[in-house]
Design a protein that fits this description.
The chain has 2 domains: 88 residues, Immunoglobulin-like, CATH 2.60.40; 76 residues, Sandwich (Immunoglobulin-like). Helix content is 0%, strand content 53%. It has no helices and 15 strands. The strands form 4 sheets. Strands 4-3-2-7-8 form a 5-stranded antiparallel sheet, with no helix packed on it. A hairpin with a 3-residue loop joins strand 7 and strand 8. It starts with a strand and ends with a strand. Pfam families: C2-set_2, V-set. This is MOR1B protein. Belongs to the CD200R family. InterPro entries: CD200R, CD80_C2-set, Ig-like_dom, Ig-like_dom_sf, Ig-like_fold, Ig_V-set.
Length: 176
């Protein structure tokens, strides 16, 4: 989320036409097209965050700026040359790194929250001990994971919460 992403489409010599067909998981179909005989680009229903990376006659790559979960879906590049047709399909999935927080509850137990991640984070503890976790799904596809550490005799010693996630692991420590 928030980064730019470039989807490549093999450049071909003798390019006649290039079309990106985008079918998002949510929202309407859009296309970006280029015709070499007219040296003309067209766009239909595509947001301003999607455009050619360079000149489509030289490199038909698609750039998505400020990637968000709304960009998830199927992206197909179709290249037509005098000799052949070429298709490249991408299934774009967007990762959202959760926001990690840690606090002590009223009983003095560490409680770790990995908020609004996609997919859900996995929470583990150091030192190892008993913990209970629950997940809460949100309408935008993100998930918040809440984990309570309940090992005995951690008074005054640091307990570390580790959130493992494909977008990057995070950790934080607290003494309750």
């Amino acid at each position: 989320v928030g980064n730019s992403s470039v989807l490549t489409c093999a450049p071909k010599s003798n390019l006649t036409m290039v079309t990106w067909k985008i079918t998002p998981n949510v929202g309407g179909f859009c296309t970006l097209g280029y015709r070499a005989d007219q040296n003309k680009t067209e766009r239909t229903n595509c947001s301003g965050s999607m455009n050619w990376k360079f000149r489509p006659d030289q490199d038909p790559a698609l750039e998505i700026q400020q990637v968000g979960t709304a960009h998830e879906g199927i992206y197909t590049c179709e290249v037509v040359t005098r000799d052949e047709n070429f298709h490249e399909t991408y299934h774009l999935t967007v990762l959202v790194q959760p926001r990690l927080s840690l606090h002590c509850d009223a009983q003095g137990n560490p409680v770790c929250q990995a908020a609004a991640g996609k997919p859900a984070a996995r929470i583990s503890w150091v030192p190892e001990g008993n913990s209970s976790s629950r997940e809460e799904g949100h309408g935008n596809g993100t998930v918040t994971v809440l984990s309570k550490f309940s090992a005995h005799s951690t008074n005054g010693t640091d307990t570390t919460c580790i959130a493992s996630h494909p977008a990057g692991d995070q950790s934080t420590s607290i003494a309750c």
